[in-house]
Backbone:
């Protein structure tokens, strides 16, 4: 998205990265470098594991984790966001959006704990990766990050679940469910307990937009 007259954004401290799955991270990293891109971590296995990863940064400062995997139906494999209370955030996304906790891992060497949530195996769909950095309870968010959009079969019922979760765990509804003027696609939006914005979009309406 480009906003008129804005040529620079502050990404803040809370946004982690977008994860991109690829069958050959070594080749992808070389391709990025050949086109003038910035590789901030050269390809290689993760510490203590075998998964090959690399990190890249685009001209606007957004970070990308390049993750080597076999052929995947969803190349955009994860979105990482920083949270101040991991247990609270996991409960929120389970209750508000019906996500499943796919895995959780504490990494003492790097002083953080991560939790991955989603609706299917992380190798088959996009996962939300939440990271808690030891002792960090809040993050500056800047003005660059916009939102995560998720499809739903019933915006109204989804908004009810979100409302219950916000009353228990924090966050708030920003836009009550209903159609957008002009295009009639039904949406609702909210922020989670850490202030990250999520938009729920009626799946059938969105498919009509694409026709």
Residues:
């Amino acid at each position: 998205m480009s906003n008129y007259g804005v040529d620079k954004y502050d990404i803040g401290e809370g946004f982690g990265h977008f994860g991109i799955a690829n069958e050959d991270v070594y080749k992808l990293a070389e391709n990025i470098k050949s086109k003038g891109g910035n590789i901030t971590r050269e390809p290689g296995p993760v510490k203590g594991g075998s998964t090959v990863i690399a990190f890249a940064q685009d001209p606007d400062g957004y970070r990308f984790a390049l993750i080597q995997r076999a052929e995947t139906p969803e190349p955009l494999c994860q979105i990482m966001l920083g949270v101040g209370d991991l247990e609270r955030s996991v409960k929120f996304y389970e209750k508000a959006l019906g996500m499943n906790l796919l895995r959780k891992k504490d990494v003492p060497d790097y002083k953080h704990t991560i939790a991955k949530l989603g609706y299917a195996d992380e190798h088959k769909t996009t996962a939300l990766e939440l990271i808690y950095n030891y002792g960090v309870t809040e993050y500056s968010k800047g003005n660059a990050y916009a939102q995560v959009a998720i499809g739903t079969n019933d915006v109204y019922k989804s908004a009810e679940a979100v409302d219950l979760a916000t009353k228990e765990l924090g966050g708030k509804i920003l836009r009550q469910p209903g159609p957008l003027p002009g295009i009639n696609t039904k949406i609702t939006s909210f922020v989670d307990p850490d202030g990250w914005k999520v938009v729920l979009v009626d799946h059938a309406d969105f498919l009509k937009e694409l026709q």
Remarks:
- The longest strand covers residues 15-22.
- Residues 72 and 124 are 6 Å apart (CA to CA).
- The radius of gyration is 18 Å.
- The chain has a mean pLDDT of 94.
